[in-house]
Each structure stands twice: as structure tokens, then as C-alpha cells.
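Hi,

I'm pasting everything inline rather than attaching a file, because the server keeps stripping attachments. The sequence lines come first, and each chain or strand is labelled.
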Amino acid sequence: MIVEDKPGVLSRVASMFSNRGFNIHSLAVGPTHVAGRSHITVVVDAPELEQLKKQLHKLVNVIKVTELDRVDALESEVMIARISCDPVNRGEIGDTAGLFGARMVDLAPNSITFEMAGTPEHLASFVDHMKPYGVIDLVKSGRVAMKKISDVARIAVGQA
Amino acid sequence: MTQKPYTGSHSLLQSLEHEGVETIFGVPGGAILPAYDPLLDSPIRHVLARHEQGAGHMAEGYAMATSRVGVAMATSGPGATNLITPLQNAKMDSTPLVAITGQVGTAAIGSDAFQEAYTTGLAMHCTKHSYLVTDADEIPDVVHEAFHIASTGRPGPVLVDIPKDVLNQHTTWSPPTLAGLPGYKPPSSQGHPRQIKAAVELIESAQRPVLYVGGGVIRSGATAELLAFAEAANVPVVTTLMARGAFPDQHPLALGMPGMHGTYTATTAIQNSDVLVALGARFDDRVTGDVASFAPRARVIHVDVDPAEIGKVRNPEIPIVGDARLVIQALLARLIADRAEAAAPTRAEWLHQLGIWKESKPLSYEQPEDGPIKTQFFISRLHAATNGEAIVASGVGQHQMWASQFWSFNRPGTWINSGGLGTMGFAVPAAIGAKAARPDELVFALDGDGCFQMTFQELITATTEEIPVKVVVFNNGGYGMVKQWQNLFYGGRISASDLGTSVPDYPKLAEAMGCVGLQVEHPDEVDAAIDKMVAVDDRPVVLEVVSDLDEMCFPMVPAGGSNDHIVMGREDL
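And the predicted assembly:
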């Protein structure tokens, strides 16, 4: 949703969800290209979003609410993951990470830390591949999303 | 002598004057002190309440009696927290209210300073919107926005929190704009023509239609339109607790209040309706009872200015988002246009059936000749004595239901009660607010002893501010509705609902607050007591009605039960 960049707006939005009994799965807030406007992406597991959208619209600082179905959405999350390693398997881990497009950001004798961005599935798949080595620590951002407008993008995702 | 600088406080007062504010209800204190100084030089009347909750309810009573924005003012911390109940009350009943609160100085915010509370945070869920003003230059726009938000769309409370240093900041005043509200677009439409057309066709084809009228009709000032439409369409009308007065009770099409303590006819008409037209009503649980069995055969047309109400409880066949007044106008225009081609439905069978129910299942009570006085009897006598020409405020509980049942309303703004939140203690301050707004009206607070004991100190305000309200205290020695539930659903185990009748001495208590104190104990003295009460016009009156301790309020649909099973009296239990 697009909101006014004012103090307390995030608090209003977030607590509206809990007030109406919805659990926020993921939340991301950031500026937009327009001054004074912020973008909030909220991921919720809810069978019925209509009432939620109407309640969000009632918040005075909320300018626009868009419901994105995953099929129509470009989505991305950022993750930093620290993987246990030793001099023997470090190369193999690095190769796998390279295939996923993860970037090494910290290297220690017994661990290697990657940073990457991608769809939730992409990140989950990477984590799966790292599990055998041992995931020491992992942080993820809230999801950001934008509506797809090209059919090309839709087809591409369909193939992936 | 140098001229005083123009500060945020001056800007606040000038902004309130700019909005046409004539009366503020408030209590001063440290953080709001700067605003109280220029108030001395302002044409705005300040009514000094004895408690901020009282100030808030007074502002609500003022708003409900006039359809104008009520204004309450309080200091930071406890002043603001004491306003929370009126704010939530106004939110639930869609009452236009602006609350101005002082806040500790900007530099002290977050430091747990003396009388600090996170007011905008506390108010987040009990206001339509709230502001923390951080620069005095913003005051004109913020106040203008606050009044705009409070009074447009679905009305509601708006809080403006102003730190003390901002009130003291040097500033200037310039005419405000609404440019700062890009996200606020209240629907003011008359509904989509296609929906209007479909709605009229559905209503015209209905065999058993009902207009289910809620408080939105009063808030939008649509009562004249409602009367015209109901008569033209020949459709009976039920008025919810918040809509009492929206349609004249004496009208042949009026069925009274539906729901938990509604009339048999109103509740049963909805249950049997084939088309239910909800106008500014929100399918509240006190109206619907068990939702699954509510109006099971009805196709629903739902008109509301708040899109979030549509489909929240019941999915309508025809949703119409718009202002009730404009939508009803559009419905009427369409109906008249369609009638040029088709005959008006007579609905003789339906109206006949309703007549039978009205006759066979009326509201009833039995008044024993030698007492004790039944509240229903007193209310009927008071109505007769005043010809119903009065504003009636009430508290919450049995007496509220009886007032709604036995007072015959015929105009809007004459029934002032706490519907959604059910705030005990509402009556006395709300009546004071209504009387301050409408000094030429006879204003009664019909109150219970439990409610009265929550806020009666505001009668000191009434005396000192010369606001002569008339308070009737139905003294049944306890929380009557709580007792009723304990008797019905807890095996008669009376827990903490018995207040006793030994104290207080109500007439003495009234006299101590500068009011006239009266008491009536026998049914045959009721008329004389009413005459005495009505005759006093120079100060407030408190009339204690020593009432039946055990009377129960019927009809009743037990909470969560189906509206098909109405308990008409003890014999039905």
C-alpha cells in the first residue's frame, strides 16, 4: 500500500491488523520514488481480504491499497545466511552459492556468510541446499512486491 | 506595556472559532494551560466539567442534539486517558467529536515526564484519526482537517494532541486548507444509478419488505427523505436503538425497535421479510441475534457511507455505498419514475399481518396500584405529561431499553444514548451537553441508580454553569440488567449487582450539588412529581423514582439466540 510518510503510520497499519484479528506474516516499509510517500508491503494469510482492505482504506494516512495475488506479483526478499564450513567443503559451498546468485559477504575460518535477494522460493531452496553443511544464523527482510504488468514476465515465471 | 505575542494557543482558539465552535467542554491542567489563557478573551463558551469523561460525554450530547461537531478539551496524561471512554463511545456511535489534549513539552516526550501519556498511541483505536502537532504553524490546517474528518463520511472522533511548547510557540494564523489529506476520500455519492435501479426494482417486487433504519439516517440528516420514501414505497420501518427518532413512532408504518429488547413486531417483521433494506445500519449483534438465522429469507439491500460495513456481517444482494440522505433521495426519484409505468404494490397482506402482531404482541407491563413504581409506567407518564416534546438522554441498561421502548419519538436528535459501547454513566453529562446546545428544549436524563453513581458529580457542573437539566433516577437498588442476567442465566445467584437502597439519599445528594431534589415512591404520586420537576426551570432537578427492585426487561432474545425465539415475559421462561 502507499501511505503518507508521517510518524505513527506504520504503527496504525500494523495495529489495525492485530485489532481485526489478522496475523502479519511479513512486513516491509520503505520510501517510494515520490517524496512524502512510503510503500508498505504486508503478507498475510487470510482467506478473505475484502474487509481488511476496506479497514486499511479507512486509515486517513493510507492513500492506496492494492491486493496482489502471488501469480500477478513480482516479489523479493533479502537474506543474510551464515553457513558452517571447513577448508575442505568451503569450495563446494561457494560453488552452490554461486549457482543461486548469493554473494559472499563475510568469511571466517569456520563459517561463510552470504547475502542474496530473490523470491521466497528461491531463498528457501538455497537454505535447503545449505542445511547439510549447517546453517548457523539466518535473517530475512520482509517481502517487497510490485504488480507485474507484462505478459512476458508472467510467462517467464510460469516456465521457471 | 508590550503586546502579548501571538502563539500556538491563540492559533488554536482562532482555528476553533473559524470552525464555528461556540461551546467547549473541558477541564484544564498543566500541559493545556496555555490554551486556557486566550480562552478568557474568546467568544467561545467553556463549560467546566468536573471530570474529563464528563466533558467528553457532554461534547457527545452536544453533537447528538445538534449534528454539529462536539468539542472536548483536556490536559495531558490523566486528562487524556479520562477522555478515552468518550472517544470510543463516539467511535462506536459515529458521533462527530474533536478532542483537544495538551501534551508534555516536545523535549520531554518519551521521558516519562510528569503527566505524560502516549496519547495518540492510546487513542489510535478509539478515534477516526489523531494528530500530534509538532509545529504551531500546522495548527490551522490540523484543526481544520480534524473537523473535516470528524464530520464527513461516517462521522467520528478525532484527537488533536498539542505539546505545551507548541502552544507557547510564536506563530501566525493563515486560512487553512485540506491539502494535507491525500488519503481521505469519504464517499458522498448517491449510489451508482444501476444499483439504485436494481434496489428499487427489488423493493417494488417485494411481498414483505422492511426498511431497517440505523443511526446513519440521523447522522446524515435523512429523516425527511426517509419519511417520504417509506410512504411512497409503502414499506414498514424499524428503527434501531441508534435510530430512534429517525421515523415517527406514531406513524402507521412504524414498527419500533428491533433486536434483543425490541418490539415483537419489529424483530419478527425482519425475520419474515423477503427484502430487507438496511439504511445506515450495521447489523449489530444486538439487532441480529444469531446471524445465521437472522432474516433467513431476506434479500438484502445495504446502504452505508462506510464501505467496510457492507458485507462485514451479512453479504447484501445489492450493496450501495453512499450518503443515506442522497441515496434515499435517489431511491425515491427512481421509484417515482418507475411508478409512471407500473402500479404501486399494495402489500395489503403484509401490512395486515404486521397489524395483527402489533395488536397481539404489544410492549406491556403491569403497574400494581399500590406500587412499586414500574420504570415503564413512569416513562409513559412523563411522555404523556410533556407530549413527548423533549430531548431524552439515557444511561445503559434496563432503563435505557424501557426508555427506547416506551418513549414515542417523532423527531431526530431527541434520543441521546450510548448504543454501541454501552457506557454506563453517559446520561447525566450527555444531557448537560444537549441542554447547553439546545437551551430552549426540555432535556431529561433518564438514568438508573447504577449509572447515576458513575457520573453524577457533573450535576455540580450543571448547577454552576446554569444548565438546568432534569435527571430522573430510577432507583432499583442495583445494576438491573446485570441482575436480570444473573436471574435468567446464573441460577438467580446475585453477584455484585446489588447496590442497596440505603445510600445515597438522592434528594439530599441533589440538594448538596445545588439541584432541586425530589423523590416519588407511589404510582399515584407520579404525575404530581413530574409536574413539580417540569416546573423547575432555574436549576437542575433530580427526581428519584423508587422503582420495582425485581422488574425484568422484555421482550428479550437471549444473547446469541435466534430472533425467531422471542421471550415475551417471565411466563415464557
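Chain A touches chain B at residues 3-4, 7-8, 11-12, 15, 19, 50-51, 54-55, 57-64 (CB under 8 Å).

If the labels don't parse on your end, tell me and I'll reformat.
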